[in-house]
Specification:
mRNA splicing; mRNA processing; 36 helices; TPR-like_helical_dom_sf; mainly alpha; 2 strands; 702 residues; coiled coil
Length: 702
């Protein structure tokens, strides 16, 4: 019982001890250490310790055969253990085989390689090491067997084929090497393999065999490769050229050009072809090749072609040939521009100018037809202004350069039919067409064209051109009818009224001219009425109808009180040449001054008074001169307040104003202002006298 109780007490105390929480050690000093160690430092030290040189293993000296066999056994056991641990690591197999090879145990090394090939026969390095071991130990047949097995198992590994053929060639077995190449070619390898075969045959002067291989390779590229490369054809041709088979080389180039056609043209082929012909002194052939290529290859893909063609022409061509290549280059540039934007009419103009300078008529017509086919998509005149000059230049070219009047007429008629005359028209086209028909001595067609233009789309320029034509032909009745139509169409055109009246004046029908002027000034709306009135007045002055001229001036002054009209009226009276001309002129100035007192534009009134003053200085008396001097205004400077667009204050502005003596007498405020200025002046003089009294005493004594 005592033992049981003791055992129970011990178990209870053990359980209590397990449940007791251990005490945590308290850190007395929580300050950071003086030397801090970072993770980066730890990693760097570990790396440095890895680089420390370990002591080399002790050299083992083998003194007898038993020790050697023991060493071999232990080494083989190590290699076998490594292989057993991981059979797929080929480096272990290779190290094992190389160790056996170093001991001249070729059979064992061969066995290891065979076991490794059973594990991974697709490993290229394994095959190469195996074959190299056999070749190194002069086991030629074994090496051949290994290469045969390698190329049979992995025929797409080119390295096996290269090593195999090289080995046979080094052994002097040319036939065997050729046989290996033939087996390789059956697999249709890449380009370099074919060239290696060709170079092999060329090393042994077998040119015919090399040519046959080239033909087989070209045939292979035609049948198998979708997009064959140009350089293979070029290499074939250069091979023939190198061995002086120039006819064969030319034939190869021609076959290449025919094969690639116009869909897959390459500038490198044509450059090589041209250089071949250049070496053969066939310069005309070279030009034909370059021009053929330049006409068909896009500009962006023919930069090298242009460069070589230019160099060729500079070396062997004349000035004409060099100009041709430059023209061809510019033509390609323009073609690209118009293809990118067919409505770029400036590019068409430059292109046509180039073609006209150096091309036949059919080529020029073709380019013109292509240009005029690009009709502006919007029927607005601003979009047609540049386009219409294509037609004009086309017609002028046909008439002046090609001397084809029939085609010129067709061009003009097609252009007129194309223009939407209901929305807008071009008077220049109608007038050029009429002038062309006149040059062809076909006056009825010219009149019909101009009549049609006036009927479809009347314009001021069309009327003027038609009237000028009839004037040159001295058809004055037709001119009168045209002027009547013109004035019905545009009665506000003052120039037309004036020209019509001048025509009647030239023809001597004064009354008719005067009636035209009267009709003109009676129109309710005119674009330049001042020009019309001046022309009418000049007309009456030329006819020496002074009373009618005065009446015209009075009628004009009823409509406008402009200062220039008054001055012109006064000068007319002065130039009338009669005794009372001075008095009449002075009277006009008096009337004008009275009429312009209420005019808001004071500058015009000043202009009138200055003109009157000049008149009095030349023809007046002292009394009249004194009188006009009293009428001249005083020029004063004033200030006025400015406002910005948003209504805010923008400061002050200075300006000049005129004060007329006649207006001063009627305005007492102005008189008071003058008296104030006089008083201020007197005050300034008195202050100046008080400043220097001694000077006043001396002056009084004197």
């Amino acid at each position: 019982a005592r033992r049981g109780a003791a055992r129970d007490d011990k178990m209870a105390s053990t359980a209590a001890g397990k449940q007791r929480i251990p005490k945590v050690a308290k850190v007395k000093n929580k300050a950071p250490a003086e030397v801090q160690i970072t993770a980066e430092q730890l990693l760097r030290e570990a790396k440095e310790r890895e680089l420390e040189l370990l002591p080399p293993p002790p050299q083992q000296k083998i003194t007898d055969v038993e020790e050697l066999n023991d060493y071999k056994l232990r080494k083989r056991k190590t290699f076998e253990d490594n292989i057993r641990k991981n059979r797929t690591v080929i480096s272990n197999w290779i190290k094992y085989a190389q160790w056996e090879e170093s001991l001249k145990e070729i059979q064992r090394a061969r066995s290891i390689y065979e076991r490794a090939l059973d594990v991974d026969y697709r490993n290229v390095t394994l095959w190469l090491k195996y074959a190299e071991m056999e070749m190194k130990n002069r086991q030629v047949n074994h090496a051949r067997n290994i290469w045969d097995r390698a190329i049979t198992t992995l025929p797409r590994v080119n390295q096996f084929w290269y090593k195999y053929t090289y080995m046979e060639e080094m052994l002097g077995n040319v036939a065997g090497s050729r046989q290996v190449f033939e087996r390789w070619m059956e697999w249709q390898p890449e380009e370099q393999a074919w060239h290696s075969y060709i170079n092999f045959e060329l090393r042994y002067k077998e040119v015919d065999r090399a040519r046959t291989i080239y033909e087989r390779y070209i045939l292979f590229t035609l049948l198998v490769i979708v997009h064959p490369d140009v350089k293979n054809w070029i290499k074939y041709a250069r091979f023939e050229e190198k061995h002086c088979y120039f006819a064969h080389a030319r034939k190869v180039y021609e076959r290449a050009v025919e094969f690639f056609g116009e869909d897959h043209m390459d500038e490198h082929l044509y450059v090589a072809f041209a250089k071949f012909e250049e070496n053969q002194k066939e310069f005309e052939r070279v030009r034909v090749i370059y021009r053929y290529a330049l006409d068909r290859i896009p500009k962006q893909d023919a930069q090298n072609l242009f460069k070589n063609y230019t160099i060729f022409e500079k070396k062997f061509g004349d000035r004409r040939g060099i100009e041709d290549i430059i023209v061809s280059k510019r033509r390609f540039q323009y073609e690209e521009e118009v293809k990118a934007n067919p409505h770029n009419y400036d590019a068409w103009f430059d292109y046509l100018r180039l073609v006209e300078s150096d091309a036949d008529a059919e080529t020029v017509r073709e380019v013109y037809e292509r240009a005029i086919a690009n009709v502006p998509p919007i029927q607005e005149k601003r979009h047609w202004k540049r386009y219409i000059y294509l037609w004009i230049n086309y017609a002028l070219y046909e008439e002046l350069e090609a001397k084809a009047s029939k085609r010129t007429r067709q061009v003009y008629q097609a252009c007129i039919e194309l223009i939407p005359h209901k929305k807008f028209t071009f008077a220049k086209i109608w007038l050029l067409y009429a002038q062309f028909e006149i040059r062809q001595k076909n006056l009825p067609l010219a009149r019909r064209a101009l009549g049609t233009s006036i009927g479809k789309c009347p314009k001021n320029k069309l009327f003027k051109g038609y009237i000028e034509l009839e004037l040159q032909l001295r058809e004055f009745d037709r001119c009168r009818k045209l002027y009547e139509k013109f004035l019905e169409f545009a009665p506000e055109n003052c120039t037309s009224w004036i020209k019509f009246a001048e025509l009647e004046t030239i023809l001597g029908d004064i009354d008719r001219a005067r009636a035209i002027y009267e009709l003109a000034i009676g129109q309710p709306r005119l674009d330049m009425p001042e020009v019309l009135w001046k022309s009418y007045i000049d007309f009456e002055i030329e006819q020496e109808e002074y009373e009618k001229t005065r009446n015209l001036y009075r009628r004009l002054l009823q409509r406008t009180q402009h200062v220039k009209v008054w001055i012109s009226f006064a000068q007319f009276e002065l130039s009338a040449g009669r005794e009372e001309s001075l008095s009449r002129c002075r009277q006009i100035y008096e009337e004008a001054n009275k009429a312009m007192r209420n005019c808001e534009e004071k500058e015009e009134r000043v202009m009138l008074l200055e003109s009157w003053k000049n008149f009095e200085e030349e023809f007046g008396t002292d009394t009249t001169k004194e009188r006009i001097e009293k009428l001249m205004p005083e020029k004063i400077k004033k200030r006025r307040k400015l406002q910005a667009e948003d209504g805010s204050d923008a400061g002050w502005e200075e300006y000049y104003d005129y004060i007329f003596p006649e207006d001063t007498a009627n305005q007492p405020n102005l008189k008071l202002l003058a008296m104030a200025k006089l008083w201020k002046k007197q005050q300034q003089e008195s202050e100046a006298a008080e400043v220097d009294p001694d000077k006043d005493i001396d002056e009084s004594q004197h």
